[in-house]
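To the team - adenosine-5'-diphosphate complex, inputs and output below.
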Amino acid sequence: MQALRVLGLVALLALIVGAIGGKVAALAMLFAGLLGMLAWQLINLQRLVEWTHTPTEVSLPAGVGIWAHIFYDLDRRSRTSADLRERLTGALDRFHEASQAMPDGVLYLSANDRIEWLNRKAEQQFGIDGRRDHGALVTTLVREPEFVRFLQGGDYAEPLVLHSTRRAGLTLLVQVVPFGDKQKMVVSRDISQLEKLETIRRDFIANVSHELRTPLTVVTGFLETLIDGRDDFTPEDVTHFLQLALEQSLRMQALIEDLLALSALETGAPAAVEERVDVAALVQSIAEDTRLLSNGRHEIEADIDVRGGCAILLGSEKELRSAFANLASNAVRYTPAGGRIRLSWRCADGPGEFAVEDNGIGIAAEDIPRLTERFYRVDRGRSRETGGTGLGLAIVKHILSRHQAELRIVSAPGKGSRFSARFPASRLEPALPALRS
Ligand code: ADP
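Output:
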């Protein structure tokens, strides 16, 4: 419209010029007008072309006439599509962030099992590099046969337990969720810890059954022998058999008591009672019990030094007695007759330390880290002979950890051992306050 109006104006001017100055002047006027109009269109076209090469967020320059409409319209459309693009990119970013934050591995596969996207957890679990391996066939990177079979089998009702061949000890629970047009989402969860616990539980049940079956078999054997040969045995024989059967029953009883103690310490039993334990009295009384157990076969001394403010230990007296007595009885059981055993308590360098030292059989370096495992014994025969259950140090470790204390073991075969429990200074107090009359 605008252009027509300008054209009309130019024609009118040409007519006026023609009337005044003649035909040539009118034609020149018309030509100049048309040339001007053409130049104007070309300039606007050039501005439009330049705009298409600028970044999307730059606005179009203002135009005049028809160009103002064109520029305005194009500008509005471009802004709408930029907004839409921004919203879509935002949604995609949020989706990626959420997928990255997931505790499980997430892997998207195309219809032909090529890698489209995966989060960091999946990268670690499957050993895939998201950038490098984009578009690669997943089965060329995750090559465990059971995974390949599972993915290609198409039955995803049950998850797959995948034992990684790439990283020893890594077990994944893999689920496949088909979506869209034959695409798949693979979700992987690290269940290595659960698997380990399950193995420990199975081993534990096997160990307990084995430990109980041995003495039970002996008792059953004695009872059958006594029943079968009732008339052949002298009263002394019978007493002897019953004595042996009683020993085995006591062994089973000790085992069950230790198992109950361990389970009470492990499974949600209430936290240790905070009592103000008089450590000197406790250590002296354990030294007395240890002498009774040794029955004169060892030289046993107690060395107590509470200077430094550790006359009182805060904790459960019952549990502390059990842990300290366990260490002392081990010293008796693993030190040949004539050996020396020394119990001590001191806090000179800050933490409170209860220690049991012996010059007994000692322990090889490779066995030391495993001593607190349930049923771990260096010499099974010697442990049994001396009434051991293989649970003593496991109980000690639990009790000490309930008191934020640390068990340290220093030992050398043939030289002896030193077991020490170090309690934090926060559990120590100086002497009992004097009672007010
Ligand atoms: P056990 O009932 O077999 O003694 P523990 O858990 O108390 O079970 O100890 C585990 C193992 O640690 C023992 O079987 C023994 O081999 C070793 N052990 C513990 N204390 C000593 C010690 N003072 N000297 C040598 N070996 C020891």
